[in-house]
Write a structure and sequence with these properties.
The structure is a single chain. This protein has 155 residues and is α+β, with helices and mostly antiparallel strands. Helices cover 43% and strands 12% of the residues. Strands 1-2-3-4 form a 4-stranded mixed sheet, covered by helices on one side.
Length: 155
């Protein structure tokens, strides 16, 4: 019996304390990392929308009107009329990679889709195929993780 008391090692209580401390540290790292990822995706959304808005302004300078929602969801229109716009700029960072994920919602954004709305100056619907009814304003929107919606409008 005397030889058992002279043995060295950790008690079960010491081991449990170490495991608990490691668990707490792992939780803190995970929470911090998740927050950093969300912030990075929100920054990407802002960058995407500003890039699209810039290309829309260039299009407007050339044509004197903004494209309609259906045009902005047409891949061939984007490649010919909005040259240099990265395809990834039309997709929310949390969305998938199917063709539908690269399209805008008509109106306000959703949690994984950017929104686009083109209107006349008075805010009513526009139609670029009808003279005098062209789209003279636009609103692009994105929804941040956390739920707040941000918008960018024409200049």
């Amino acid at each position: 019996m005397a030889s058992l008391r002279n043995q060295k090692g950790f008690t079960i209580v010491e081991l449990l304390i170490v495991i608990i401390v490691i668990g707490i540290l792992a939780t803190l790292v995970l929470v911090t990392f998740t927050g950093i990822q969300q912030s990075a995706r929100n920054t990407q959304r802002q960058t995407d929308i500003k890039a699209v808005a810039s290309h829309l302004e260039t299009y407007n300078a050339k044509n004197s009107y903004y494209p309609m929602w259906a045009d902005l969801n047409n891949a061939s229109f984007i490649s010919t009329e909005l040259k240099g716009l990265d395809k990834e700029s039309t997709r929310d960072p949390k969305a998938g990679t199917t063709a539908a994920d690269y399209q805008f919602v008509d109106g306000d954004s959703t949690s994984q889709k950017y929104g686009y709305k083109a209107t006349k100056d008075d805010g009513t619907a526009c139609d670029n195929d009808v003279a005098g009814d062209e789209c003279t304003k636009f609103t692009l929107s994105y929804t941040e993780e956390g739920g707040s919606r941000k918008t960018v409008t024409n200049l």
